[in-house]
Amino acid sequence: MPRLALISVSDKTGLEDLAKLLVEQHDFQIVSSGGTASALRSAGIPVTAVADYTGAPEMLGGRVKTLHPRIHGGILARLDWREDVADLEAQGILPISLVVVNLYPFQATIAQPDTTLSQAIEQIDIGGPTLIRAAAKNYAHVTVLTDPSQYTSYLEQLPHPSPAFRWMCAQQAFCHILDYDRAIADYFMRQGAPPTPPYLRLEGSLHQSLRYGENPHQAARWYALAPSGWHSAQQLQGKELSYNNLMDLEAARALAAEFPGQAAAVVVKHTNPCGVAVRPTLSQACLAALEADPVSAFGGIVALTQPLDEAGAEILTERFLECIVAPDCTPAAQQKLQSKKNLRVLLLAELNQGSPQTVRSIAGGLLVQEADNQAVDPSQWRVMTESPPTPEEWKELIFAWKVCKHVKSNAIVISKNQQTLGVGAGQMNRVGSVQIALQQAAQQVRGSVLASDGFFPFADSVKLAASAGIRVIVQPGGSLRDQDSIDAANQAGLSMVYTGIRHFLH
């Protein structure tokens, strides 16, 4: 008895060769419908129309073709179950051993800019996914092929495809349906979607299994969720990236993105900036950023806003660093960097492009928020004290505020001459962060600027900053006791500016 194959494909790549070999060399009888049946007949390949096989004509302009018990009974029958075999015999149904189906080109249709909703709806396949799902469910007895790339492997498996091959094809079949249904769901969500999507879909492809996570006892994997990003960066040299490397690299990238068009260098340690500088040249910025806190910079991550040149590479190779990322690198710089064979050097052209959302896991769920991408707009800031900042101090305020945004809260940044001098990060109270930042700044603190990511609920931090020689403070404002801080600043002769926006980072 010939074996039965059901073939219905939109992508007809390799169709004729497959069908011809099935019929001529492997004694298959082909059942097909619509355009697939026409294509096979035109190629001189014998085919039985679905309507002739089922005895039921196509309906509704082709919307109903394969939804029939003779089709699905033949696909779903468990041939090692006597009850199923008896049902087939009672109904005169033949088992179907091969299902070759790929779906209407929905994704290609909606990719066309002039596609209407009604046109898109007509490309939503109904029978195809049903056939694929049925065959994949019954993979123990049926092989399902959803991609022309599988045809050769299947023919090599004949006359009896192995259970492992059928299982693999079933896995690919369910993924094929998943991708198809996701494209439809996403399209419908974009058509008059509510302001808050009721579902969150996160799916990425495994880019790399990492050696471990934050600690050696934690397994970790790296998934790519978008066409571009860190997985598309070019690694010029160095060891394999670790979980912690990637976390620090992203923190450094996000801060470097605050200085487009400027020669800036960012040094990050444990996701907090420990040295940031803007200078006329990149090499000068590298030197200033490393000297801002040379102790913390040991083993740090460096992000650069401009292509790395030989002078910059000379400075960076004098220190022990874990990673360097830049938009590009000159050949001379690359040669210089090779003296540090374990130093990871990456090129990421899209250094300014980050994710529009941040996602954090909690027990039983996820927290999703818009990324803190609000641009700095000093025109909206307010001078709250009797003494306003000078033009140079305004420039410094902007620099310090940009850096402070990327420091873990409670965050304090002290800077002078476009260089960080002290950073207080992640303390349980703001006074503690001020003290740490002042200690780091040491003798250089006089005449500098202090930025705070949140308001001062008491005047103690302002008084402490004034006693150390801070000249200007920038903070969000918004405390019930703002006036206490303003009064303390006026008494000390400080300038204080309110931004009206805070930048907590947890």
Look at the structure and give the mean pLDDT: 90
* Unreliable segments of 5+ consecutive residues: none
What is the number of strand segments? Answer: 21
Q: Portion of residues in helices?
A: 25-40%
Structural class computed from helices and strand pairing: alpha/beta
Strand order of the largest sheet: 8-13-12-11-9-10
Proportion of beta-strand residues: 15-25%
Distance between the termini: 69 Å
| Largest sheet report | 6 strands, mixed
**How many H/I helical runs?**
19
Tertiary shape: elongated
Rg (C-alpha, Å): 32 Å
Précis, in short:
With 506 residues, this protein is of the alpha/beta class. It has helices at residues 15-26, 34-42, 50-54, 69-76, 82-91, 106-110, 117-122, 127-137, 151-157, 163-190, 243-256, 282-292, 294-297, 310-316, 331-337, 391-404, 430-441, 460-468, 482-492; strands spanning 3-9, 28-32, 48-49, 96-102, 143-145, 205-210, 220-224, 234-237, 263-269, 272-279, 300-304, 321-326, 344-347, 357-362, 365-370, 382-383, 412-416, 419-424, 449-452, 472-475, 495-498. The protein is elongated and about 100 Å long.
Report what the structure shows:
With 506 residues, this protein is of the alpha/beta class. The chain is 38% helix and 21% strand. The protein has 19 helices and 21 strands. The chain has a six-stranded mixed sheet, with helices on both faces. Strands 16-21-20-19-17-18 form a six-stranded mixed sheet, sandwiched between helices. Helix 15 (331-337) links the parallel strand 12 and strand 13. Helix 12 (282-292) runs parallel beside helix 14, helix 14 packs parallel to helix 15 and helix 18 runs parallel beside helix 19 (482-492). The longest helix is centred in the middle third of the chain and has 28 residues, at 163-190. The termini are far apart. The mean pLDDT is 90.
